[in-house]
Amino acid sequence: MAGVNPILAGLACRCPACGEGDLFEGYLKVGARCEACGLDLRAADSGDGPAVFIILIVGMLACFAALVTEFTVHPPVWVHLVLWLPLSALLTLFLLRPFKGVMIALQFHNKASQAWNDQA
User: Fold this and answer.
1) For residues 47 and 113, is the Cβ–Cβ distance under 8 A?
2) Nearest to residue 84, comparing CAs of 72, 60, 57, 66?
3) Is residue 1 part of a domain?
4) Quick check: helix, strand or coil at residue 23?
5) What is the pTM assigned to this prediction?
6) Domain range spanning residue 85?
């Protein structure tokens, strides 16, 4: 159990303790317990950390792409809206779950919460 890589377990949305059980019950709802090792996951709270990272990463990518497109192609404004708004929304939805998994796994790995200290 000590050999679980928190980054890989988080990206795969797996239990931070064993790397086997599912971390989430739904899209972003953390499960109550790991079905493989029985770890109580109710203590897991990533807060706003994943959302902040996603906002910064997706915002930087979208702004850079929009600027490159604007300075090279000079499209009308509606093209920017059609391209970058849906792309930003889809990229945000795609990255949010793995980033939340990584944050929770890193919290567990680094014992960043009193609840994790009691269980480990």
Assistant:
1) no
2) 66
3) no
4) coil
5) 0.85
6) 6-119
Q: Token pair for residue 73?
A: 């192609």
CA dist., res. 106 & res. 90, Å (int): 25
Residue 41: Cβ within 10 Å count: 23
Q: What is the pLDDT of residues 63-102, one digit of tens each?
A: 999 999 999 999 999 999 999 999 999 999 999 999 999 9
Do 37 and 15 contact (CB within 8 A), yes or no? Answer: yes
Burial 52-72 (b: 16+ CB within 10 A, else e): ebbeeebeeebeeebeeeeee
3-state secondary structure of 72: helix
The alpha carbon torsion through 76, 78, 81, 83 (nearest 10 deg) reads -70
CA–CA distance, 82 with 19 (Å, rounded to integer): 39
Residue type, 77: V
Amino acid making up residue 110: N
Domain count, the chain: 1
Two structure tokens written together for 87: 């792309």
pLDDT in tens, 21-73: 999 999 999 999 999 999 888 888 888 999 999 999 999 999 999 999 999 99
